[in-house]
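Continuing the batch. This is chain 6 of the set; chains 1 through 5 are on the previous pages. Same settings as before, nothing changed between runs. Recording input and output for traceability.
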Amino acid sequence: MNNLKKVVFFCSIICLFAMNIRLGAQEIKEIGGEPLEHLKKDFKERFIYYTFDYLRMYKTFSKDNTFADYLNDGNEYTIFAPVEEAMEMYYSQNGGRNGNIPRLRNTMKYNMVKGKMLPEDFKNEQKLRTIYGSGSYIDVIVKKGKVTLKDMQGNSVKLPKPMVFEKVIIYPLDVCLRYQ
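Output for chain 6:
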């Protein structure tokens, strides 16, 4: 009888485990969702630092509600994602990859705007309010149909072709836009 109890217990555990796997796949969403997954698989490997840092910021700051899973929270966003060279420049000016982590979080939030913005949605002399807050904005300059973004430090970058997802638009930038 003792062996029968063990078999029933073991089978019950296996059944519960199998049910949890199926339910977990339906209930638990992947951090960053499709947009971050797409960036991870970029064939030119332009977003290795960005994807790593996005996950690191989420893991570090989601508990105190100062960083959320913006790419997968159901809201619409426009993301200005710095490519590798831009992130390397940012790191070199801010104490390396593990330098000022709260500043990196704020910089990543400064590169995000609520709402989906296609190139034709940008208007000359528009000020984009970023999710960083603190009165932060990005200036927009439109000349002859070309869009240029200017950050609060005066750095400018031309807007490239976007990657469009259901709720998120990502522009790969050669510059990491900075708030101060």
